[in-house]
Design brief:
- By secondary structure, the protein is an alpha+beta fold.
- The protein has a single domain, classed as Arc Repressor Mutant, subunit A (Orthogonal Bundle).
- Helix content is 56%, strand content 12%.
- The chain has three helices and two strands.
- The chain has helices at 2-17, 23-30, 34-46; strands spanning 51-54, 60-63.
- It has a two-stranded antiparallel sheet with strand order 1-2.
- α1 packs across α3 (34-46) and α2 packs across α3 (34-46).
- This is DNA-binding transcriptional regulator.
- It comes from Arthrobacter agilis.
- Keywords: DNA-binding, Transcription, Transcription regulation.
- Residues 4-59 form the HTH deoR-type domain.
Length: 66
């Protein structure tokens, strides 16, 4: 559980650094799979963080205002 919490904090920090990240870029930066990134994004959304996703090749994740 501590590993998951640390990873969620790392993900939040990365989302604050840049306007938009692709799933593969986040996965590479965090040394996890893209599936883990998607799960972690879901957990952060459940906790109330406004994370937006744009689908497609040019899509990515970004932390919304709020």
């Amino acid at each position: 559980m501590i590993e998951t919490s640390a990873r969620l904090l790392q993900l939040l920090s990365l989302l604050q650094l840049r306007r938009e990240w692709t799933g593969p870029a986040l996965a590479q930066r965090m040394d996890v799979t893209e599936r883990t990134v998607r799960r972690d994004i879901g957990k952060l959304r459940t906790l109330g963080y406004p994370i937006n996703a744009s689908p497609g090749v040019a899509g990515g994740y970004q932390l919304g205002a709020g």
